[in-house]
Amino acid sequence: MTISAGTTRTSASASGSPLSRALWRDWLALGLLMFPVLLVAVDNTALTFALPAIAGSLDPSGVQLLWIVDAYPLVLAGLLVSMGSLGDRIGRRKLLITGSIGFAALSAATAFAPSPEWLIAGRASLGFFGAMLMPSTLSLIRNIFPEPNRRRLAVAIWAAGFSGGAALGPIFGGWLVEQFWWGAVFLVAVPLMLPLLAFGPVFIPESKDPSPGKVDVPSIVLSLLVMVPVVYGIKDIATEGPGPAGLGSMAFGLVMAAVFVRRQLTLANPLLDMSLFRNRVFSMAIAANVLALFSFNGFILFLAQHLQLLEGMSPSSAGIAMIPALVATVVAGLVVVPLVRRVRPGFVVGTGLAFSAAGYSLVTFGNHSGGPALLLAALLILALGVGTAETISNDLILGAAPPEKSGAAAAISETGYEVGSLLGTAVLGSILTASYQHNLRLPAGLLEAAPPSAAHNAGETLAGAMEVASALPAPLADAVRDTAAAAFNSGVHITAAIGLVLMATAAVLAAVVLRKVPKAI
Question: What is the pTM of this model?
Answer without folding.
Answer: 0.75
